[in-house]
Structure formats: C-alpha cells, structure tokens
Amino acid sequence: MNVMGQLRVLSDDQMQIVHDKACELLWEKGITFEADSTIEILKKHGVKVEDHTAYFTKDLVEKCLEQVPKEFTVEAPNHARDVKIGGNGIAIHPAGGEVFMADYNGNRHKATRQDFIDLQKVYQACENVDIAGYQPISPMDIPERTKGLYMTLDSFKYSDKPILAAMELETIEKKKEVFDLYDIAFGKGYLDEHYVTWHCVCPNSPFFFSNFCCEGIEMFASHNQPVLLVSAPMSGISAPVYLLSTIILALTESLAGLVLAQLIKPGIPVIMSASLTYGYMRSASWECASPDTALMLAAIVQMDRQFYGLPARAQCGVTSSKCVDFQAGMETMQSFLWCAAAGVNITSQTVGALADLLTCSLEKVVLDDELISRVRYMMNGLKFDEEQMCWDDLMAAKPLDNFLLSESTMMHFREFWAPTISDWTSVDEWENAGKKHIDEIAHARVQKILADAPDSLLDPEAEKEMLGYIKHVESTL
Fold it and tell me: H-type helices in 223-361, by residue range?
C-alpha cells in the first residue's frame, strides 16, 4: 500500500476551518493586485474591486477550485521522459534562486553560466531528478537582459527532461521571448495544446501581488501553460508569529492567484505551493530547515492534496548547513520525508541546495538523488500478498535453518533497494579502498557525469535557430 498522504497534521474539521478562514480573508480583507490589467480582468468577471484591492466571494473561490485539473502531464523534448503531475507520484525539479555555487573544497563563488550548464548535465544523469531547466542559480556572467534566454537554451542543450522556464523573467518582453524559444524547440503552436513548462509566481506577503506576479499569471495562463503559485510568508516577519496564522495567510494568497488564473483561462492547471519558513528571531533570520517549517509545509500539502484534491508542491529537502555534512543530511531528510509522507507531488530545492537556499552544490545533487530514491521506495509501502508471505519456505524450515540458498532468495534478492553513493561495504573493504568519505564518492560521481555528458542533446538545426534568435535579441538592445 502506498503510504503517501498518510501523515496528517490537521483533522478534517481543522482543514475546513483553515479553508473558511482563508475565504473570509479573501472577502473581508481582500488582496491587492498592482497591475492595472489584472484589475480590469477581475472587474470584467464581476469581482468587487476598490482601487487595486479585490474581494473574492467564497462561491467564486470554490467554483474556480472545481475547474482546476486534479492531474496533468508536463511534456519533455524526449517524450519518454514526460512527467505526470498529481496522484501518488513525487516529481522532483531543480532548486531555484540560489546565488552561489559551492565547490568540492567548500569554497563558494558567484554563479556562472558554466555552473548552470554543469547543473543541467548532472540533473540529466540523476535518475530521481525528473525535471530540468528552471533557475537553480542565477549566472552572473550573462547580461540580465538575455540571461533567461541563455538559461533556456542551455537547459534544452543538456537535458531532454521537461524544461522549466527561468524565474527571472520580470518583463512581459522577456516572457514572450522565452515562449519563442519553446516554439522553436517544440514547434509553432505546440504549446496551444500541450503543457511543457510552468511559471513560478510568488506573492509579496502579506496580501500583495506585484506587477511581476500579475503579468506572470496572465502571460502563462493565456499561453496555455500552468501557473505555479508560491506563497512564501515568514512567521514573525512577513506573517504573524504563529504557525497556524502563517498557514492561513499562505493559503489565502494562493487561492487568490488560483482564481485569477481560472478567470483568464478556465481549466488551466494551477499548482498550489508554499515556501513557508520559520522566522528565527535570535538572529533575525529565516530557517527553511526548522521542524516548525516542516509542520507548516505538511499542513499546506495536506490542504492541497486532501482538502482540495489538487497537486501539491512544497519547498522541501532543504538545509541551513553551509556544507555537505551530517547537518545537511539530517535536515534534508527531515524536510523531504515529512512532506512526502504528507503527500507532496512536486518538490523544489530538494537537490543540491545549501545555506538556506543561498548556495548550490553538485556533490549534494547526486547525494540528494539517492536520498530521494530512498524516500520514494519507502512511500510505495510494504507489499502484501501470498508471494510476499513466502509461506511454503516458512513451513518447510527447520530450527536454525537459513534461507540463503532458497529459490525465492536466489530469484528475488536483486529486487530490493540498493545505494548508488552510500557505502555498504565492510569496514575492512572500506579501509582497503582508501577510507573514502561520502562527499569524496559524490565528487567522483560528479566528475564522471561531466566527463561523459554529450556536447548537446538539441537537434542541430533547432540549436542554431535558438542561438540565432538570442543573437537577434541582443542586436536590438
């Protein structure tokens, strides 16, 4: 039995109260939308608006919730790698927004385009990273104006998994240009009928959608591409200090974005998400790896999956550690396993993130790849059938017998989980092999991946056309 979603931090009655309170805020308090175009869309559909603050009825919220698909597929350049979003699956996509890269020796530097390329190559090689692209780091050696275009090109060159659009598409012009690259990669008009990416929209807590957020929802929904809503209030900082009130605020903001997306294009997939964090007042910082954060994320995942029946995304598998050490492993597993047990469908930051999402590490990417495989295996639960009982072997066994040479052992021992990075050898074998620590093994794995990666996975003509398009944009600046 699959055990995803078995963890519950809210009762049924409590989930109803959280929903009711979010709807009450949407009607009594309202949400401010900065963009004039958004205000016009809301007015057109009969939403009450005062200046730039919109007030949503509970009936409208619940009508829009019913329109959102429970599952959908995001397509890849290689359709064998298409990813279903929803149900009991967990889709893993890259980190987003990190500023620095950490090298194997623990030193960090400002991210470069080559770092971005290396990350895409490693994502491609990791079996448990399902989606590539996005913006795990922001390369500092590419001009801001064309950064998103080069990241999109490099993502298509080095991965044939689904490619998420970059985060830093802060103007309508940049968003349109990236859509042009997707049209080259998939064919003109393909996006009209297929989902190939989505856009990350993060409201400014509390209760504010900037021009960037409004335009992102409008552009991607009107281009038939899903909208990802990432409310990110920090308890005690941009949200009240209590965990429950932070949960209600995050849900309120996400529901407002969902309604807007449905008014623009009814039935467009909307991914509910949260990047809730605990404000650590002793140092005036925020902690993504706190147990308090894990509790809030589990509650949001539970609301999205169990109450609304929608795909749930969370920023989980995270750590405050600055290096690949015991703390990094402990916090990453705590964060990811907790959300997986709550039923999360999509995760961000689960591969390679360090230092409260400020830094990326290639070695941690391959270590997290194994960590994810462990959790996925456990979420599938225990098989329960006649074969698994192995009744004949049990009945035939004599006291002190062993089962090493049993037919069932010889036929099935390879079916169980095995590590890709962790060392399960004996102490003597480990010592004879040089007493390598796990970060050394991960580093060797990274080096092999980079050495073996192909020069490009893109069709040469498509790559030439995409690069030509970027050069044309540069020539007009």
Answer: 243-264, 291-302, 326-342
Our measurement of the distance from residue 413's CA atom to the centroid of its chain's CA atoms, rounded to an integer in Å, reads 33
Best CA proximity match to 421, nearest among 128, 4, 81, 121: 128
In this structure, the strands spanning 277-280 and 234-235 are parallel
**Cα 86 from Cα 90, distance rounded (Å):** 8
7, pLDDT greater than 70: yes
Contact 93, 85 (CB under 8 A): no
Cis peptide, bond prior to residue 206, ω within 30 of zero: yes
Cβ 316 vs Cβ 332: under 8 Å: no
Please, are residues 278 and 293 in contact by the beta-carbon 8 Å criterion? Answer: yes
Enclosing H/E stretch for 359: strand 359-361
Rounded to whole angstroms, the Cα distance separating 124 from 45 reads: 43
How does DSSP classify residue 82? Answer: -
- Order the strands of the 208-209 sheet from edge to edge: 48-50, 53-55, 31-33, 208-209
User: Quick one: which of 341, 329, 331 has its CA closest to 421?
Assistant: 329
CATH number for domain 66-379, candidates 2.40.40.20, 3.40.50.720, 3.30.70.20, 3.20.20.480: 3.20.20.480
What residue segments make up the domains of the chain, in order of their start?
A: 66-379
Joined together, the tokens standing for residue 233 give 């209030």
Is residue 282 very low, low, confident or very high in pLDDT (cuts 50, 70, 90)?
Answer: confident
**Distance between CA atoms of 261 and 69, rounded to whole angstroms?**
13
Q: What distance in Å separates the CA atoms of residue 474 and residue 477, rounded to the nearest whole number?
A: 5
For residue 227, give Cα distances in angstroms to 29, 157, 249: 24, 24, 19
Its pTM stands at 0.94
